[in-house]
């Protein structure tokens, strides 16, 4: 087993077998991102408060109630023996690096990262809107609009893109290259998960992922009663026994808290009266059986065959290979049920809202020419969701491709550059418009308490929701922004003076980063957004950028916001930040002789 690094500390790993390579990836991940993956494991197991204290209890209660670790264990148990062995090898590598890790921990980490990434938090918000403003107002927040989101595009000889998420420090993605006699793959992986999931290049085929904006999580309103023999829930056919037990959450400092865990026939109770049903929990399958076949892929058909096993999140895939073929795929599981399930929590006792057998068929389309995915409503995604980004980003990317603009420059396209005073004035004006809407009498009922667990405040904050869908809310109220605030009354300096990078830091991480002024806004390709009326600072945007040269992988380039290491003492903790800020990419080095071998301790 051998470890090589490029000039930015990106690991290139070689081993004599697939499992030795998994072990090596785990060991290097423990070295590069040890503190990060320890926190991620604790999040999945509901043990974060044991490390961080009482402030983490909200998450731990949710993790226990949602049964994240239990789902990971059961999904691991259902995997094929080959995938289990691969995950065990990775876990052994992490443990050799001094980090507690179980064979199912990677599944738990992936699930914890994505369980609130999809649609159920929006249903909490929609129910609050429906209760306080009326059903008509829900449409304002479901409208296709200037949502932040990811981009991916295919043009002749190239796949490029940039996934958009919370910008975390250390970063959510690791750049990595994995080589053994069976494959040689470069790509981006979630810290704590083996292989390469969302963005990769095997030499013969490359792929890119954007969120399909699918609705695949449902909330059910549960009615419970306690009897001398246990707890019962009112189901479609009467009262049903439910599974109940109590767990103890340890808290740093010696305390603890008890949490009651209840699961009905629909799913785990994540709040006092709501159960969550997801394909992952219903099937005990996270789609991890796709990951090894994906590493072995050499054609677009191989990628498609591997991802037929995928579960969630539901993703849009662009993939192209060296034969010139390309495919558009939608992969994952979307349940068959009524449209209202996709808007708000529905009554558990009404059979009308129960899931039907099977899942909605996924999409596979052979491609020719330019294709752009930008979380927008398209024939390959429309059947799966109910709220999409506007067409603006997709149209702009296609326009730039038609003009011959290089992909690295497309990544940075925005009418809101950091140095522009006019952009600063526009942002300041929209900020004040949003502030006025916060005080608008017609929206005042939204400011009432939502009644859900405080953990969900980040997804149900009326001010953030109004700022995020500002134009749709204005249209719903029959107002124009100019009526609320005269643009001529606004003065501002350059946009970047206020639009500063503010990453979500790993708990306990105190290391600083340089002041980083940013351009961009929600509906531009450079989707470095803030929340009008709440903050001008930026905590969400592209968590990686990549340009895959399909025929010649060594011409590919990529970048992440910070660096390869999660250790603030490392020179590679944030050495990619200035490049990411200005839109530069680093080379994907494929020549082993151009890399520096590192002694494996």
UniProtKB/TrEMBL annotation:
One Pfam family hit: Penicil_amidase
Keywords: Hydrolase, Zymogen
Keyword RNA-binding: no
Keyword Membrane: no
InterPro entries: Ntn_hydrolases_N, Pen/GL7ACA/AHL_acylase, Penicillin_amidase_dom1, Penicillin_amidase_N_B-knob, S45
Superkingdom of this protein's organism: Bacteria
Family note: Belongs to the peptidase S45 family.
PANTHER family: ACYL-HOMOSERINE LACTONE ACYLASE QUIP (PTHR34218:SF4), PEPTIDASE S45 PENICILLIN AMIDASE (PTHR34218)
UniProt protein name: Penicillin acylase family protein
Source species of the chain: Paractinoplanes lichenicola
